[in-house]
Amino acid sequence: MPWLIFLLLILATHFVHAQENGTLTTQTENSNAERRAAFNYQMFCQGCHSADGSGHKSVPEFKGFIHKFMATQQGREYLIRVPGAANAALDDEQLADLMNWMLRTFGDASQGASWKPFEVSEIAKYRKHPLNETIEYRAAIIAGLNLETEL
Amino acid sequence: MKIFDRFFENSARKIAQTSSRRGILKTIGGGLVGGALIPLLPVARAADGAPNSPQSGNPEQAQAKHPQDAGDPSSCDYWRYCAVDGFLCECCGGTYNTCPPGTQMSPITWIGTCLNPIDGRKYVISYNDCCGKTQCGTCLCQRDEGDRPLYRSDKSNDVNWCLGADSSIYHCSTAVVVGLAFEPE
Fold first, then answer.
1. Number of neighbouring beta carbons within 10 Å of residue A23
2. Is B161 an active-site residue?
3. Using the 8-state DSSP alphabet, how is residue A118 labeled?
4. Which of A77, B70, B112, B185 gets the highest tally of CB atoms within 10 A of its CB?
């Protein structure tokens, strides 16, 4: 009997260890994706949209606003079809991480749970159709959502 | 050995005669309190960088805004200027991260990375132009690392970034460290 208890203990330790390793790997992957998204924001967006997403003159602001586009399918697609996103030198996975990071960081935190994060497959589909008349398209979406904005 | 004994005895007696225990406590206490007050000075607060940026909550990124530094900021070889194309504000009455008086920093800019030779890490650099006065004309520097053609306008240093400022007249360029470049763990 003692050998059976000993064996069970070894198996249990192994199981806990494997689970911890798995959790650690996932945490590291999440942390890498998060840090890479923040870096990609600096490299590809911040130059015009500014560090806190407040925009400038004709550059639209994200701060406290970006999540509102997620209320409709058209708005959701718009965020990926704008030239800055669709033509960014990032692959689909990196762009999905970046857009979800922007929504979490600049969106209204109190409504953070109301939108579904972008999936990689969605990004690949939407970015194949970049917008030409971005300003008019954005204005039409905002009018449809009954939102008020300066831009 | 006697010489040493006499030397240390005399030194100890001299210190005992010319100082007081309470005086030492007062000096140490003053130093501690004074040192603790230094971060409250307005200069230190102003040097903290953009407080509203989403990366500012990250201690590593906050520290990254003050990297270990070496080199001459008025020389084109300075590590932060690896992708600059223009006149260095350091020679025009400003510094490598502030504009000269009478000019305005353009709010839109192009951003690249430079390798810091001191710690061997890459930093994200924002090349904000200073605008509103005619060209500075001194310390022309063109290094162009990572510069892309004009059709990749967000990664081109040939764009006049002063178009985002009140005046589109270019004066000089800064190189502001905004964070650490991404390296997978």
1. 10
2. no
3. P
4. B112
pLDDT in tens, B82-91: 999 899 999 9
Q: Is B48 tagged catalytic? A: no
A92 Cβ partners below 8 Å, 6+ apart?
A120, A121, A123, A124, A127
CA diameter of chain A: 77
Q: Which of residues 81-140 of B touch A (CB under 8 A)?
A: 107-113, 124, 126
Q: For chain A, what percent of residues have pLDDT higher than 70?
A: 74
Residues in chain A closer than 8 A to B154 (CB atoms): 44, 47-48, 84
Residues 6+ apart with CB under 8 A from A130: A81, A82, A83, A86, A87
Show the tokens assigned to A111. 């409504």
Q: Do A59 and B50 touch (CB under 8 A)?
A: no
Is residue B159 less than 8 Å (CB to CB) from chain A? no
Q: What is the ipTM of this complex?
A: 0.71
pTM of the predicted protein model = 0.71
Q: Which residue of B has its CA nearest to A58?
A: B164
CA proximity to B94, closest of B56, B37, B132: B132
Neighbours of A70 (CB within 10 A): 18
Report chain B's C-alpha Rg in angstroms. 24
